[in-house]
């Protein structure tokens, strides 16, 4: 394919058989390295595992869970001497207590290279101006992209999230071409641009957005692309693996390539732990293949997706994950029916009169679960005639019912009236006992 260009051609196009040979070699090195960590030394010694002779044998290794990480806080997973560790990061704590991750200098360099590879894949170049709107600090989104962007040679602006007027001022004056941003924040920023009367073509130079860190639907991506006049690429990562850079969409935007020279992906049935065949949906399990400071074996991410069985037309041999559906603990069970918030989002974003924010409330009333969805109207529609709003509400109710099979109670509210968060969006409020 003539249009595709590769950052590390040899490794990105490595034939599958060779890639698997490399993975097996790296996996055995990782097991060896893991023996240096107090937690794995115990577990692996108990299981009597020191080497695998095929990738299939990975199922002999035990899973590692977030609970294992927490129970062995602070240093139980550290596999190098402290003087070799140079950085500590932590998960954002979306679910439960945060977990910590360590890196050596080499780990950091590998991570930078991966980010550079991702950026180059979506056609970022050293001439680009990169505005990094993810938070810096323990969260991996900010620093992770920062160093990879510098490695690629882009002028990198470490502005972090928030203060939208300042963001826009920087975009205008420094002619920002690439932004890294939470999808929920991208939508809010787009609203402000419109309010301020900014002309996307005349006043700004945006061409690419890297979006990730929270589940979002294809419909939200398209909305961001339209509202900001750019192409938006899905970026998946988690601090336990490194952060961003684990899987990234290529220019074709059809699934996220997992960089298999660094991570070995499996999809399992979250109930039984059984490995599922390619194409079946389940929980993503990842094993680090090159990490020194903190190797992780078969880490259960709790994120739901599937491996796309077909090869990608871009030519890269690293397998693709489908857009993340959510975490298994995002799933709402409403009177016995399983619903993911992104299913609701997908429907809402197809309706032109709807704005960009919504909130889901689940309550128990007379022993029954009730699903309330508060939906912001698009700016300017709020003052419409009552009859039209009633008709709109009915339409939304019907379309949602067709998708999720549960009848929701939709409430239409004015634009920008629902709560927003600085970090990852929280749009689901479960008020039932125990939640
Ligand atoms: P926390 O698990 O506390 O949120 P992290 O900051 O490590 O900590 O976030 C990683 C998690 O964010 C992933 O496990 C996943 O649930 C979510 N995530 C990251 N990127 C994406 C993405 N592109 N799409 C959907 N969810 C994502
Ligand atoms: Zn591809």
SSE order and pairing:
Elements: H1 9-12, H2 16-34, H3 38-47, H4 66-71, E1 85-90, E2 100-104, H5 105-121, E3 129-132, H6 140-152, E4 155-157, H7 164-174, E5 178-181, H8 183-195, E6 208-212, H9 218-228, E7 231-238, E8 243-249, E9 256-258, E10 263-268, E11 282-288, E12 299-305, E13 307-308, E14 320-321, E15 326-327, E16 332-334, E17 337-339, H10 341-349, E18 354-365, E19 368-377, H11 386-404, E20 409-413, E21 428-430
Parallel strand pairs: 3-4, 3-5, 5-6, 6-7, 18-21, 19-20
Antiparallel strand pairs: 1-2, 7-8, 8-9, 9-14, 10-11, 11-12, 12-15, 13-14, 16-17, 18-19
Helix pairs in contact: 5-6, 8-9, 9-10, 10-11
Bound molecules: adenosine-5'-diphosphate and zinc ion (ZN).
Adenosine-5'-diphosphate (ADP) is lined by residues 91-95, 139, 212-215, 234-239, 301, 303, 324, 327.
Describe the structure.
The chain has a 9-stranded mixed sheet with strand order 4-3-5-6-7-8-9-14-13, with helices on both faces. It starts with 8 loop residues before the first helix and ends in a 5-residue tail after the last strand. The protein has 435 residues and is an alpha/beta fold. The chain has helices spanning 9-12, 16-34, 38-47, 66-71, 105-121, 140-152, 164-174, 183-195, 218-228, 341-349, 386-404; strands spanning 85-90, 100-104, 129-132, 155-157, 178-181, 208-212, 231-238, 243-249, 256-258, 263-268, 282-288, 299-305, 307-308, 320-321, 326-327, 332-334, 337-339, 354-365, 368-377, 409-413, 428-430. Helix 11 links the parallel strand 19 (368-377) and strand 20 (409-413). Helix 5 (105-121) crosses helix 6 (140-152), helix 9 crosses helix 10 and helix 10 (341-349) packs across helix 11 (386-404). It folds into 2 domains: 1-328, ANL, N-terminal domain (Rossmann fold, 3-Layer(aba) Sandwich); 332-430, ANL, C-terminal domain (GMP Synthetase, Chain A, domain 3, 2-Layer Sandwich). Helix content is 30%, strand content 25%.
């Amino acid at each position: 394919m003539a249009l595709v260009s590769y950052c590390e051609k040899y490794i990105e196009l490595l034939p599958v058989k060779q890639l698997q040979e490399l993975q097996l070699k790296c996996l055995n090195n990782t097991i060896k390295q893991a023996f240096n960590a107090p937690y794995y030394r115990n577990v692996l010694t108990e299981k009597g595992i020191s080497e695998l002779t095929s990738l299939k044998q990975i199922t002999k290794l035990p899973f590692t869970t977030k609970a294992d990480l927490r129970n062995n806080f602070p240093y139980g997973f550290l596999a190098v001497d402290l003087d070799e560790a140079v950085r500590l990061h932590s998960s954002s704590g979306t679910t439960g207590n945060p977990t910590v991750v360590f890196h050596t200098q080499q780990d950091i360099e590998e991570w930078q290279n991966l980010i550079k590879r991702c950026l180059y894949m979506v056609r970022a170049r050293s001439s680009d101006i990169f505005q990094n709107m993810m938070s810096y600090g323990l969260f991996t989104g900010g620093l992770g992209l920062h160093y990879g962007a510098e490695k690629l040679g882009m002028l990198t602006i470490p502005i972090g999230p928030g203060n939208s007027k300042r963001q826009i001022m920087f975009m205008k004056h420094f002619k920002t071409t690439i932004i890294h941003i939470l999808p929920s924040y991208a939508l809010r920023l787009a609203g402000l641009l419109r309010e301020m009367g900014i002309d996307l073509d005349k006043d700004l130079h945006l061409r690419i957005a890297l979006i990730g860190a929270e589940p979002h639907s294809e419909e939200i991506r398209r909305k961001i692309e339209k509202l900001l006049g750019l192409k938006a690429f899905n970026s998946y990562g988690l601090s336990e693996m490194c952060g961003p850079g684990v899987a990234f969409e290529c220019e074709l935007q059809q699934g996220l390539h997992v960089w298999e020279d660094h991570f070995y992906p499996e999809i399992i049935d979250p109930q039984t732990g059984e490995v599922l065949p390619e194409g079946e949906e389940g929980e993503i399990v990842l094993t680090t293949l090159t990490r020194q400071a903190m190797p992780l074996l078969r880490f259960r991410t709790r994120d739901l997706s599937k491996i796309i069985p077909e090869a990608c037309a871009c030519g890269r041999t690293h397998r693709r994950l489908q857009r993340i559906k959510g975490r298994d603990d995002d799933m709402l069970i409403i009177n016995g029916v399983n619903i993911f918030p992104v299913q609701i989002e997908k429907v809402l974003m197809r309706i032109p009169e709807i704005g960009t924010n919504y909130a889901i409330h689940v309550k128990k009333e007379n022993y029954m679960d009730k699903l309330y969805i508060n939906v912001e109207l698009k700016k300017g529609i709020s003052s419409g005639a009552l009859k039209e709003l009633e008709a709109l509400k009915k339409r939304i109710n019907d379309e949602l019912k067709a998708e999720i099979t549960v009848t929701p109670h939709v409430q239409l509210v004015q634009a920008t009236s629902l709560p927003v968060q600085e970090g990852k969006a929280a749009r689901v409020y479960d008020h039932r006992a125990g939640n």
